[in-house]
């Protein structure tokens, strides 16, 4: 029996398309699915006459594979991954490789990596982005695990991955343990923000400026032009879906879509981890919270009959207005990506991932959902200065923001007057404002509030004109506490 190059478990749409992609690049594939009828259907239709071979037990799958065995799991994250790992373990030899291609939580991947290494089994957690089409034609791949494990699949991944316009494969070794799934998690968080920002701008075009879906589609198609700053996959498909006709009514499909957006958890994980690391990602959080409120449909219908504001319209279709929306969206996108990369930077240090941010931006240039032309600029920014304090400090981005930030402020004001909520646009704007504040007065207030009710202590600055924190001879921040219960409110310095 000829041994096959790789095994694949899980024949959902992503699994099927990945199997077809792998076979198309010259590899032989053995496949397995819990439901045998699903395997039969795949082999007799999409995989007919291809080097894809059905198996009906895990032992049969394992026996089909060349050594060291490489098995790709394309199953739902969580317990199903652990179940398959436990079932495979007795059948594998030391040095065999299990690859988890699902949207697994990165801490689960770290755990599995550690457990399997004790058994001599290699493990890679790979983030895969691009949806069903990307899986078939070339996804963005983010593998994390040991270098030894990565070397076993490096060539295959380079072959099946999407390619940039200059021919570079959209895959690279991300880092150890759960680094690959971590980067995919943050990718999805940025994706949430990107989608929400575009959606809010479409809402403004429709409700504030009274544009119909066909008009909006033409604008978005123009914004996806070859040299446009906004050129991206999400702008492209939004332009496409806006003009789609509802087959049952002849009207626009977008006008018949229920205003409810569901989630699969990666956005929530991103927020949770940002809180653990103390990194501010308000635009990603706003996108997740907006999806949550979209699911409260009955509540919103009731509240729309209780609460009301006077709504204002704005002059339709002026060139200046379109420029304002365009540049505002670009600034907000820069802000949301900056938040995501700040989280990656912090996680790289915390979890010892040693992430190459320039390379991650390169991996995202094609194949994935957030692919966009300006990721080339982001990649170049981190190549030029890997230790840049924040993406917004990159000269090209900073210059654009400094020249156009008022457009975003004006757009938010116009939207609010017209009764259009802009959670993501607001947060993207406020993130920039707060980041550029040498003195945050709200934080001064909160610091003294905490000291008053909880004796938590506070730091002090040199002076209002010199807001650097007071430090001791060793460079450590000096900490103080006011005795609020005493008549004199005496202040003491806290020493450890």
What does this structure look like?
The chain has 496 residues and is α/β, with parallel strands linked by helices. The protein folds into 3 domains: 6-177, NAD(P)-binding Rossmann-like Domain (Rossmann fold, 3-Layer(aba) Sandwich); 185-435, N-(1-d-carboxylethyl)-l-norvaline Dehydrogenase, domain 2 (Orthogonal Bundle); 441-494, no CATH class. Helices cover 51% and strands 10% of the residues. The chain is built from 19 helices and 12 strands. The strands form 3 sheets. Strands 3-2-1-4-5-6-7 form a 7-stranded mixed sheet, sandwiched between helices. Strand 2, helix 2 and strand 3 (52-54) form a beta-alpha-beta unit. The longest helix has 32 residues, at 319-350.
Summary tags:
496 residues; alpha/beta; Rossmann fold; N-(1-d-carboxylethyl)-l-norvaline Dehydrogenase, domain 2; 3 domains; seven-stranded mixed β-sheet; 19 helices; 12 strands
